[in-house]
Amino acid sequence: MSDIIQLLPDSVANQIAAGEVIQRPASVIKELVENSVDAGAKSIQVLVVDAGRTSIQVIDDGKGMSDTDARLSFERHATSKIKKADDLFALHTMGFRGEALASIAAVAQIELKTRQASEDIGTQLSISGSKFIGQEPCSCPIGSNFKIENLFFNVPARRKFLKSNTTELNNILTAFERIVLVNPSIHFSLYSNGTEMFNLQPGSIRHRILDIFGKRLNQDLLPVNVETSLGKISGFVGKPESARKKGAHQYFFVNGRYMKHPYFNKAVMSAFDRLVPLGEQVPYFIYFDVDPHNIDVNIHPTKTEIKFEDEQAIWQILSAAVKEAVGLFNNVPTIDFDTEGKPEIPVFGESGNQLSAPRVNYNPSYNPFESSSEDLVSQDGEQQIGQTFASKIDSNYSATTQGEIFESKQARVPEEWGKLYEGLKSKTVSQEGDIFESRQNTVVESKEHLVEDKSPLHYQYKAKYIMTAVKSGLMIIDQHRAHVRILYEQYQKQLIEHTFQSQKVLFPETVRFTPSQQVVLQDIFSDMVDMGFELTDLGGGSYAVNAIPMGLDGINPITLVEDIVHSAIDMGKSMKEEMRQSLSLSLARNAAIPQGQILSNEEMEAIVNGLFACSNPNYAPDGKSILCILTQQEIDHLFG
């Protein structure tokens, strides 16, 4: 039998490696920009055309390469970062494998111009699909200039499965943000189709965060700083009121490298227990500085997962540091007794004028039962309370004896008072039967109302579920999901028929988006206008919300718009119909009644009737169950 195992050619091996390292245009930019950072660049410029499909260009002012290094850099496992296996555990650079340039060259056409500071002339190199085209001297500035064209030109299947330009550009911006956040001392700029997306000047970490995500975030950042024998943890966490359900900016960096770590995410969120609603996330930017010997970076093709040697100890340190930051923020401020420059208020009694306590004058012999309301009013109209009955007789009335006063009061009583009751007795007797019958009717009606109140059609359990009896047993409905399904189909119909109506807000509010969010917003802008939104571009990523769809009373317009954009980012839809479904679902979730809201019988009846008028009453738009039925046999079985 002949041998069947053979060594793959380098071109095939490079394409296999490219499948792991180069997944999309964002991967190319990540690898090239990280190489520029490792080269000591102070200014890095990125230019993309058609979200990287047509071309990607990365220009830096770093060390550059010699003509020999430029040629050798595109070979597999050619690197200047490590020389022996032990160097893998003492890494201080972003790249180290030597696979990135070889993988890019296997699936694209590359043109490189580079020059070192010690040389007067640079070198230009051309490679297409791992095939060396040519190399020649050229005039170029110090640093490197990589131009990648026609990505995946020789792998049609990979190019076909790239997402839309909006999605791919959003991935590029996300990868770019992760790099610039950890290198605040470098000037970065990014252009898409000639339009400037980022222009970040060197500064502190806080300034870099605000330049990317907006100045409004400044008031929500709490500093975190702790240093132990295991390493240093620094950065910022958001205040509890900055929590949101979607779109929270959460970043971990280890020794200048972005990483994902769900375990450490739980450590941060544990500090916000009972401070933020369940399901909401708080933004954070945490930077770890640890000994490279205590971490393993080489466990993932894209190096986004890192293994820590003392993971449990770092978890406890991180949790304590975040709790301390949140605790310092929540402390009640002390009273400030600094009176410098304040007006002086004299101390009571300092002048020597002693004031006596007020005294209450009263008559101990006063008897309220010996006077009337008329006796309490004097001739001049002033009320006399502290006088006795006898003294008032002497001072205010002409009569001098109590007998005369009593007689004068009797004289004022009308003599024909009895005529007021004539005919009353006969009328009462004639209506006695009617009153009895009406009382009987009232009792019957009250019993009927009592039965209705005691046995409603629907029952609400813990302000979360609606329970109602059906033929087969007891039906339990999730009120929030049911209302989401009703509103979702209603919004879908209005989108198709273009019957959405706008409601102007009294005072327009301003919302700011990052460049990656603006890309998605522009893609869904026309659909949002059809839904009733009115947004005005103010420049710099800021938009004024002038109107929202009618019927969304009590909803914050800023939160509503942000949630819709974040939902579109999470869904990553490229088809128009799928994007509209995402918008309708996001709007329905915001407008639906929340869990915990108490409903009346009429409201529960409306939800039940509206649910069974939907095309699919069993499942919510996201596929979750809306209702379940507890059959009569199951109920009987529970009672034995």
TrEMBL record:
InterPro entries: DNA_mismatch_repair_CS (IPR014762), DNA_mismatch_repair_MutL (IPR020667), DNA_mismatch_S5_2-like (IPR013507), HATPase_C_sf (IPR036890), MutL/Mlh/PMS (IPR002099), MutL/Mlh/Pms-like (IPR038973), MutL_C (IPR014790), MutL_C_dimsub (IPR042120). Keywords: DNA damage, DNA repair. Residues 457-599 form the MutL C-terminal dimerisation domain. Residues 209-327 form the DNA mismatch repair protein S5 domain. Belongs to the DNA mismatch repair MutL/HexB family. PANTHER family: DNA MISMATCH REPAIR PROTEIN MLH, PMS, MUTL (PTHR10073), DNA MISMATCH REPAIR PROTEIN MLH1 (PTHR10073:SF12). This protein is involved in the repair of mismatches in DNA. It is required for dam-dependent methyl-directed DNA mismatch repair. May act as a 'molecular matchmaker', a protein that promotes the formation of a stable complex between two or more DNA-binding proteins in an ATP-dependent manner without itself being part of a final effector complex. This is DNA mismatch repair protein MutL. The lineage of its organism: Bacteria, Pseudomonadati, Bacteroidota, Bacteroidia, Bacteroidales.
